[in-house]
Every structure is written in structure tokens, then in C-alpha cells.
Amino acid sequence: MEVVIVPDAAAGGELVATAMADLLGRKPDALLGVATGSTPLPVYRALAARVRAGEADVSRARICQLDEYVGLPAGHPESYRSVVLREVVEPLGLSPDSFMGPDGGAEDVPAACAAYDRALAEAGGVDLQLLGIGTDGHIGFNEPCSSLASRTRIKTLTEQTRQDNARFFDGIDDVPHHVITQGIGTILEARHLVLLATGEAKAEAVALAVEGPVAAVVPASALQLHPHATVVVDEAAASRLKLAGYFRATYAAKPSWQGL
Ligand code: GLP
After folding, report:
1. Fewer Cβ atoms within 10 Å of its own Cβ: the N or the C terminal residue of the chain?
2. Domain ranges (residues) in the chain
3. Residue 181 Cα, ligand 1 centroid: separation in angstroms?
4. What is 2-258's CATH number?
């Protein structure tokens, strides 16, 4: 696992946007897995700015969703489908046809989950999966004690996650209890995992995920099992890392041709 400590959220956004642009340079139709929440927004803005400046070509990129609320009405502005279309697909100038996600409105939720896992595999697998981290250590919506081998399935949100996400709704009562999320086993199949975390509120979860034991109680610790995992953190989110000095020195000495 590589840990990169950046000065702030904007620098994290630029770094991850560079990794995505470089990937699309090597593989123009790469499948990019995107995350929702506030943290990845600087990435999407930085990448869209490069497209507008003619510095990146994302025209053949494919985008896939990590997770989704169950039961929100179709077109609800806070469904993750709507969020990804609004924050990623449209600003990058892509068509909705380039985008795939699980069906949170399906009558048969288990069938929709299995169909999404199949669709990801049939699309050739995710090339780069961007992840955030919940304050309780979740990735996607894999809450603590999710199986490290889990596939895409329905999960129940913790009270803490519903409170964290209440800011996107009129209040906590409007936050769904149930979600569909790519499983941890599904996420681990992506070729490159990039977890981005910013702000002091994530410091404890980041330290447990990076320096603690691999444990289902900290779902993000599963990144330790992946052969190509990158954790990008700002100074505040890095503030509880015991090995911060080592991570800084390693990145400073990294050959520039290597990329993330
Ligand atoms: C939600 C999403 C996660 C995201 C997390 C953190 O729970 N399902 O994918 O990582 O929020 O969001 P934020 O970046 O806003 O802190």
C-alpha cells in the first residue's frame, strides 16, 4: 500500500485526476469506478477542468457506480445515480450510456445486486476504483463487520453513517436505511484502488485502515490485501499516522515516471 500525504484537498484532487488522466491516456476506454460524498468532488472538478483545457481526453471513458440507496424515487437528486450523473458524467461531457450503476429501485434487490456484479465483470472489470472512507471506516457502503469476501448486496446503514449523510437530505429521517453496495470482494477486483480522505474527522479511520490489522470491523483495512492500493490523505486526515514520516520520505524519493 502506498500512502501519499498532500497539503490539502485541492492537491489531492489534482493528484488523483492526474492518475485518471494518465490511465485514460494508456487505455482510453478505461472503466473508472467513482465514489460519492464530498471528498471526491475536487477530483471530478480537476479532471473536468483538464478536459475543458484540452489537456485530457476522457471521451471514451466508462464510469461505474460504487453504491446506491435503496428505494429513493427515480430521479431523486440525492440518489447516487443522480449524483454521479451530475458531478461526473455531465461535467466530463460523457453520455449517460457510458455509465453503469446498480438499480436501487429494483423490485428484486438481490437479483439487481447479482446483475450488477455480472455487468462489472462483463465490462472487463474496473480499472481504477476511487474510494472515500466513512468515519466508521466503511468503503462504499460496506459497514463495519462486512465480510471481506462480500459481493454486491443489500446492507443496512449504521446510525453514524445516516447522521453523516443527513446533510444531503432534509434531515436524518429522510436518509434511507438500506443501500446496495459493491462488496469488499467486488471492490478488491478493481485493478487499482485509490482511497482519498481529507479532514480531521477521517484521521482515526485512516490510521486504523492503514496501520491497524486487517479486520472486517474496519472495512477499509481490506485495502491492505490489494496489490495496487494508494491512499491519498491531506495533512489533517494523516494526523494520526505513526508512519507519516516514512510515507513522506518514500513519496518524495519516488521516481516521477512511476505515477500512482
Ligand atoms: C458515503 C458513501 C461512501 C463515501 C462516504 C464518505 O457513505 N457511500 O462511498 O466514502 O459517504 O463521504 P464523504 O466523502 O462525504 O465524507
Report:
1. N
2. 2-258
3. 12
4. 3.40.50.1360
Q: Could you say which of 143, 164, 192, 234 is catalytic?
A: 143
Atom of ligand 1 at shortest distance to CA of 179?
A: 8
Could you list the pLDDT tens digit for every one of the 260 residues in the chain?
Answer: 999 999 999 999 999 999 999 999 999 999 999 999 999 999 999 999 999 999 999 999 999 999 999 999 989 999 999 999 999 999 999 999 999 999 999 999 999 999 999 999 999 999 999 999 999 999 999 999 999 999 999 999 999 999 999 999 999 999 999 999 999 999 999 999 999 999 999 999 999 999 999 999 999 999 999 999 999 999 999 999 999 999 999 999 999 888 89
- pTM for the full model? 0.97
Cell readout for 87 is 458531478
The rounded Å distance from CA 50 to ligand 1 centre is 25
Written as one string, the DSSP assignment of 186-233 is HHTTSSEEEEEE-SGGGHHHHHHHHHS---TTSGGGGGGG-SSEEEEE
Q: Using an 8 Å Cβ cutoff, are 102 and 176 in contact?
A: no
Q: Is the CB of 101 under 6 A from ligand 1?
A: no
Residue of 68, 136, 164, 234 with catalytic role = 136
